[in-house]
Amino acid sequence: MRKVLIATDKPFAAEALAKITKVFKKAGYEVALLEKYTAKSQLLEACADAEAMIVRSDIVDREVLDNAPKLKIVIRAGAGYDNIDCAYAKEKDVVVMNTPGQNANAVAELAIGLAIYGMREMYSGKAGRELRGRTLGLHGFGYVARNVFRIARALGMKVIVYTRHSREAAAAIGLKVTHSLEDLYGKSDVVSIHVPAKGEHIRSVSYKVLSELKKGAILVNTARKEVINEDDLVRFMRERDDVKYLTDIEPDQKQVFTDEFKGRYYATPKKMGAQTAEANTNAGVAAAEQIVAFFESNDSSFQVN
Ligand code: 3PG
Questions:
Q1: Which of 41, 117, 163, 281 has its CA 20 to 30 A from that of 183?
Q2: Is the domain of 154 the same as that of 188?
Q3: How far apart are the CA of 293 and the centre of ligand 1, in A?
Q4: Does residue 121 sit in the same domain as residue 216?
């Protein structure tokens, strides 16, 4: 019997887990569950006899891969797979896949929620501002950004985007694509970041880019902390007390942000973007089905390594 390990520090919703388990039961696979683990040793022990793994932001590094000699496939139930050592997995003939788009609406709704929270002065009682009529700048144009676009348009926002890889897709739906990141930041009342933590995107939100922000601008990050140059953001926020930063990923210098930027900085206590029953179900069931398709029909769609 094939053994699948579901290893999620941040557990899937119960209804999602029931549906995921059903997919594996139907295929005749055994399922092991490791949730909310507190030590890496627990993950190392749990993966020792697994042939497949489903993870979220859980770290799958060399040590984990070396400890799982039967492992054939790891699925990141979600979009970003920067938590997995994909190159080493390839060396070990372990297929890595993600489940693109499956949790995008959940993340997009959180991004809009954070934008509203910022515009309403963190629900402090102070008079805030409305999103309607303002300009939203999408930094990146993947699945999440496309959902943010849909919601923002319904709220009466003007939406613009900066993307290098999806220019045609954006233009096809009538979105104005700015000629540079600086141009995007300079024209937006709210900027929402939706790029992965890789390549040119790493630390792409630099002082030079931030300096373009309009007075009172709000920066929302539901992507990754690595896409921000954190020293530059701290420097910029020290100089510009009109700007707010709301994020779903705690910065490394969390204490500095908390102490120095009261009323204009907020971070969720744990990455919450994809933490809905719907997103857990969509991404989790997709992951389960991809594992079964991989073993039963050699299907390696969504492979990323
Ligand atoms: C993703 O990359 O899919 C999101 O960041 C969600 O991550 P999570 O599964 O850890 O909530």
A1: 117
A2: yes
A3: 23
A4: yes
Are 200 and 218 members of one domain? Answer: yes
How high is the pLDDT of residue 52? 98
Give the separation between CA 229 and CA 252, rounded to whole angstroms: 11
Output the average pLDDT for the chain.
98
The answer to whether residues 120 and 46 belong to one domain is: no
pLDDT tens per residue across span 81-107 = 999 999 999 999 999 999 999 999 999
- Separation of 144 CA from ligand 1 center, angstroms? 11
Ligand 1 centroid to Cα of residue 274, in Å, is 6
Asked if 180 and 127 sit in the same domain, the reply is yes
Residues 99/76, Cβ–Cβ less than 8 Å:
yes
Q: Is the pTM of this model over 0.90?
A: yes
Dihedral, 164, 274, 217, 167 alpha carbons, nearest 10: 20
Asked if residues 227 and 181 have their Cβ atoms less than 8 Å apart, the reply is no
Q: Is 302 within a domain? A: no
Ligand 1 centroid to Cα of residue 26, in Å, is: 27
Choosing from 17, 247, 271, 276 the residue with most ligand 1 atoms within 8 A of its CB, the one to mutate for a pocket test is 271
For residues 103 and 88, the answer to whether their CB atoms sit within 8 Å is no
Mean pLDDT computed over 35-54 = 98
The SS3 assignment for 244 reads strand
Q: Cβ atoms within 10 A of the Cβ of 116, count?
A: 18
Strands 158-162 and 176-177: parallel
* Ligand 1 pocket by Cβ (under 6 Å): 10, 56-57, 78-80, 103, 271, 273-275
Give me the pLDDT at residue 231, please: 98
Phi-psi region of 199 (alpha: psi -120 to 50; beta: other; left: phi over 0): left
- Tell me the C-alpha distance between 245 and 192, whole Å: 10
Domain that holds residue 157: 104-267
